[in-house]
Each structure stands twice: as C-alpha cells, then as structure tokens.
Design goal:
single chain, about 325 residues, alpha+beta, Arylamine N-acetyltransferase fold, Immunoglobulin-like, six-stranded mixed sheet, four-stranded antiparallel sheet, globular, CAP/Cytokinesis_protein, Papain-like_cys_pep_sf, Transglutaminase-like
C-alpha cells in the first residue's frame, strides 16, 4: 500500500472519529441551540425562543444549560480580583428582600449583556432563565474540588455555586460554570470547551467534586470526610462512567515496595492505561486483569513516584491520589 493511500485512510478514519465525538458531545437539543443568536435583547426573549422550540422540562433545562455554556465565558480576571461585596441597610424584612432581588437582577443583566461571569453570574442567569421557562430552580453554594492540593484538605470553604433544577418531579444537579470550559494551567488562561457532563450529573460523581454549605442534599446528609479525603476525579471519569472501586480513599500511605491495588470500572485491556512518574514520563500498566466489568492492576510504590499518583486512560487523566511515604 502506498504512503498516499495510507494517509487518505488515516484522514478518513480521523473524520469518522471526529464525527462520532461530535455526535456524542452534542445532543439534539444542543445542535438546535448552537444555531441560536449569540445575543438576545433580553432574557425574556431567549426564554420565549426556548419555549417555542422545546416542550419537555428536560429539553428546556438542557437548552438553557447549552446556551449559557456556548455563550457566557468565565471571567478569570474577576475571579483573581473579585469586587468587594457592597453592604446595604434596611428597616424591614420586605425591604431587605427587595434590595437582595435588585442586586440579583443587576448581576443577571450584567452577565447576560457582558457575556462573562464567575460562578455567581452563571448560576443566577441559569435560575432566571429556568424560572422564565416555567421550571423550578435553586442556587446552591458550597466548596469545589478541582486541584491535586484539594486531596486531604482539612476544611471545606464556600468558594463555588451551582444549580438544582426540578425536571419531571426530580431534582437534577447542574453546574453550567464547569460546563462552559476549564482553566488551563499550562497556558495560564481559560479554555472554552463545552462539556455536557455537568448537566444532570450522577450525584455520586457530583458530590465527589462539590460539597454544599448545608452539608446535605435533599435532606440527606453528605460525608464531609469523603469529600475532603476522597480521590480527585476528572471530567472524562464522569463521561465514561469510570467508577473508582479501589482505592476508595484519596490518601494512600505507602513505603517502598508496597503494591497499590487499583480497580476502575468500565476500563478494559484494550484501553491504554498508564501513570506519570516524577519526571513526567509515562509508565504503562503491564499487569492488568479484567475483573467485574473493569480493570484491576497493581502499582509498586518506589522513589520514582511523586507526591501524587494520577492514572490516565487513553491520554486522559481519570483519578489522582495523594501518596504519603511511610
């Protein structure tokens, strides 16, 4: 076979892969919303457009998520230099609520018109559009887990916000801030990259990365210890349902020669599984065996492994653990 034919086949296969990836990433709702104008005169106009195109509660909630994620950018400069919270005085509870509503309305309009915000703006706009389309929606504030340094942190902090929306009589978890993209530390900037995994997220995954200030969800108490000391998971973990069966704790105490057993559901021998050593060199897993719908393997702890151990599947980070040397 000639080089030219091989190149053509390679490009053809890549086109197929890109098409499949596109199809998996965007739902039919997303594809319709992608054709919407990037700006509307008002949130009411956008809500009317969504109500015209979609009738089910699920589709309306998804359309709101998609439009915000496609068009509102994370304001990283404001995150680094937050504005001082302005206080206000009031004489009655009614006056207090009215002034809070005025501040919230101002935030919604600022987010909608400037098309940039931090999480407070994303969640306020999502709630506003949800209510305009007849959906019940609330804003939840709490802690987030996004960095290696978050594994084993001592305390939670209120640093993030997300939504819950009632769809077909069931509350669903939504984090449109994270759905619009992520911060690339190597480039020092935000990357706009629509991700559907934070719409109607499985609570097990969601609360591995979020912890509400109330410490509970729908009346059920959540484990602060599990949140603080659990492993760090990533978007691809959620997307592919890579459940981390073992270790179930984010902090691993080990001495040289100890074997760390890792088991991940929905991974197979056909996947390329590896970790990075201290020199950022890929170390491929060699001793894996398929077990209970997943893959189990062992990593021998030695001086080449650093403070954190991150497992990759097909070039994507899946889970990280903190290693404490005995």
């Amino acid at each position: 076979m000639t080089i030219k034919k091989i190149t053509v086949i390679f490009l053809f296969l890549n086109l197929i892969f890109l098409h499949l990836s596109y199809s998996q990433k965007y739902s039919e709702v997303d594809k319709i919303v992608l054709k919407y104008p990037k700006q509307f005169d008002s949130t009411e106009d956008l809500a009317k457009k969504i109500q015209k195109n979609f009738t089910s509660e699920h589709d309306k909630a998804r359309a709101i998520y998609s439009w915000i994620a496609f068009n509102i950018k994370y304001d990283y400069a404001s995150f680094l230099n937050p504005q001082r919270t302005q206080g206000f005085s009031y004489s009655t509870e009614a006056e207090k609520q009215r002034k809070i509503q005025q501040i919230n309305d101002k935030l919604i309009q600022k987010t909608f018109n400037s098309q940039k915000a931090v999480c407070e703006g994303f969640t306020a706009l999502y709630q506003n559009l949800a209510e305009l389309t007849g959906l019940k929606c609330e804003i939840i504030r709490g802690d987030s887990k996004t960095r290696l340094a978050d594994i084993g942190r001592k305390e939670t902090s209120s640093n993030h916000a997300w939504n819950i929306v009632l769809i077909d009589k069931k509350w669903r978890l939504v984090d449109v801030t994270w759905g619009q993209g992520y911060y690339d530390g190597s480039k020092g900037k935000m990357v706009n990259d629509f991700d559907p995994v934070y719409f109607d997220t499985d609570p097990d995954y969601f609360f591995a990365k979020h912890f509400p200030d109330s410490g509970s969800y729908l009346g059920n108490k959540l484990s602060k210890d599990d949140f603080l000391n659990g492993p760090l998971i990533y978007n691809k973990t959620i997307q592919h349902d890579y459940k981390i069966k073992s270790p179930d704790y984010g902090i691993i105490e080990a001495k040289s020669g100890n074997k760390i057993t890792v088991e991940i559901k929905n991974v197979s021998k056909s996947d390329v599984v590896f970790y990075l050593n201290k020199k950022n060199q890929a170390v491929k897993i060699q001793n894996a065996k398929e077990k209970r719908g997943g893959l189990e393997f062992q990593i021998t702890y030695d001086k080449t492994i650093g403070e954190y151990l991150t497992i990759f599947v097909d070039s994507y980070s899946i889970v990280s653990f903190k290693i404490i040397s005995k």
